[in-house]
Amino acid sequence: MKFDSKKQKIWFVSDLHFGHAKNFILEPRGYNNVQEAMKHTWTTLTQTVGSSDVIFNLGDLVIGAGTNSLEYANKLIRLPCAAHYFINGNHSAGVKDIYELTKRQVYSNIPDEVEVYPLTVTGTVFTFLGHRAEIFIDGRAVILDHYPIASWNHLSKDAYHIHGHCHRNLKENTSLYRIDVGWEWMKRPVEWNEIVRELNPRKTKSPDHHSPDM
């Protein structure tokens, strides 16, 4: 997939943990309780991401919501925008049910153990991309994953790696074009040009044998 940031805004976010009432999530984010967290998260999402914008959500959408997981996931996948792309994380409450239901609707004879990507939820702009995706924005390769990885495709050509999972606790390596867009960073989605401004000053070098000459 190729995108042009001059034509539409492109956002990234990870680890919303919608419905998660644990203090280790709420306190670093400045919330007093899970109700406050969910209200602020949803309001911020709808006020930040415009109807013509694209957002990449890098996993862990809903966690710890129990019987409300499916309800919360159904709300989040209907964020008003032009396209909402999803990368699988390590927590899949609610959203996994939506994936399985959609898969059965679209591919009625497919075995349960087979995964199909991309897969767009019927009646929405929410698309499951699977466990990793490679896209291009303004001609630059961008590798998307829930987890941080040490080396990635197009690294020698200044590709970015955007991830979540670590809740901004992973020490940033200033020799890599790698960034964690977890909710803890800005408590909102992060726009593509913000990521460019954050990463471009870094003096990136390959952590392996790859180089621009290869």
Overview of this structure, please?
The strands form two sheets. The chain has a six-stranded mixed β-sheet. Helix content is 23%, strand content 20%. With 214 residues, it is an alpha/beta fold. The mean pLDDT is 92. It has a single domain, classed as Metallo-dependent phosphatases (Purple Acid Phosphatase, chain A, domain 2, 4-Layer Sandwich). Strand 3, helix 3 (69-76) and strand 4 (83-87) form a beta-alpha-beta unit. The longest helix has 15 residues, at 34-48.
Structure keywords:
23% helix, alpha/beta, 5 helices, 6-stranded mixed beta sheet, 11 strands, Purple Acid Phosphatase, chain A, domain 2, 5-stranded mixed beta sheet, 214 residues
Low-confidence stretches: none
N-to-C span: 24 Å
Number of domains: 1
Could you say which overall geometry the principal axes of the C-alpha atoms support?
globular
What share of the residues does DSSP label as strand, in percent?
15-25%
* SSE order: EEHHEHEHEEEEEEEH
